[in-house]
Amino acid sequence: MLKLLMLAAITALLLLVEGGMSARTQSRSKRELASPLHLRGIRDPYGSYCQRRGGCCPGRNDQCTVPYLDTICYCDLFCNRTVSDCCPDFWSHCLGTTPPYPPSSCERNGHRFHSGATYKENCNLCTCGQNGRWECEHHACLIEDDMIQEINRRGYGWRASNYSQFWGMTLDEGLRYRLGTQRPSRTIMNMNEIQMNMNGNNHLPSYFNAVDKWPGKIHEPLDQGNCNASWAFSTAAVASDRISIQSMGHMTPQLSPQNLISCDTRHQGGCSGGRIDGAWWYLRRRGVVTEECYPFSPPQQTPAEVARCMMQSRAVGRGKRQATAHCPNSHSYHNDIYQSTPPYRLSSNENEIMKEIMDNGPVQAIMEVHEDFFVYKSGIYRHTNVNYHKPSQSRKHATHSVRITGWGEERDYNGRTHKYWIAANSWGKNWGEDGYFRIARGVNECEIEAFVIGVWGRVTMEDMHNHHGRRK
Fold this sequence. Notes:
- The chain is an alpha+beta fold.
- It is 26% helix and 19% strand.
- The chain has helices at residues 2-32, 50-53, 90-95, 145-154, 171-177, 186-189, 210-213, 230-246, 257-263, 276-285, 350-360, 461-470, and strands spanning 65-68, 71-74, 105-108, 111-114, 118-121, 124-128, 134-136, 158-160, 208-209, 313-317, 320-323, 344-345, 363-370, 376-381, 397-411, 417-424, 436-440, 452-454.
- The strands form 5 sheets. Strands 8, 9, 12, 13, 14, 15, 16, 17 and 18 form a 9-stranded mixed sheet that branches. A 3-stranded antiparallel sheet has the order 5-6-7, with no helix packed on it.
- The relative contact order is 0.12.
């Protein structure tokens, strides 16, 4: 009996020893097979771990650990194996060598940033990669310093400048949000040009500006912001000037681009682009109110947002319209509707365009905007080829519409004469020459002479009398 008890005790002891060895083996296996800490790069590569612990351990010591972010790391020599679980400073502090894993932090301006951190370099987003390097997008930016410097260095006859409102935008975004006039259809492009009598008695001066001839009747440039609707801004601007001139100053409305953007929705895209022939149709058939009554509201969510129409009108006879809604703001109650007659197309001959402007006022023109036009500051603009060596994504253009208000010419230091148009843009008064630009005349620069439009306002003596009585 005693022998049986002793045999049972020995068996139990052997099982206990075997179990302990198995547990140790299992523990060792767990550490050997543990997920490597630095598979995606060393996090916090410059942190103090083994050094803070006070030293390193020889061989294998599973207690030679330090808390490391959301886990632990080791400072024993065993950690430096195929599957590494060493602390970030093990190699430098314990072995005096370089870590075999790249740090997962990136350096910028003397500061370290963790993996996944981002910053924006002009229009390109840069992200700290798991290899310790910044990985940046490669978009062509709307404002490129090298392009500005090259234009100013070469002496093209105009100066370039940086604009804060364009900084951080890609070229594609500039073309998508800052222009917005669709090229006319083939039918519209085949529209008959008016025949103008250009006899020898017509004297065209070397310089003319509608602002000088009709003071107080030519309106200042507006800013379309990131609303791709130059189709509405240029149409409203030309109609405003023509009505003011035609009414001899009795009516000087600054017409509302927002009225067109929000209400002229027939085959139009609002802040996503539109057609000038559609805008003139609406101005003739429906009419618009003033900017004061229906102020421009830049899209808040996306540039493609189209605001709900807040102005309606009804026919009151003889083609005239009358508003049936109050002004959509609390500061104005004058909701008069202004209309135009059908637009007419001018010849591409520069003299005929000049005569039309001098006789009847500013005209509307379509032009192609290239990447260098956005940085125009002053001088006579001509498209340059400074980006010829760059990829095609840096050399793009799209269609825009502007208001031509005059012309002029100037001589360079070699005595050569350079002719130009004076035109109003819709990018605000801090762009270009107080919101205007000069562009080469007589050579169809950027196709600005290919499709030019004039118009008459629908103005009656009754209209002039009513507005005259309202003026202060």
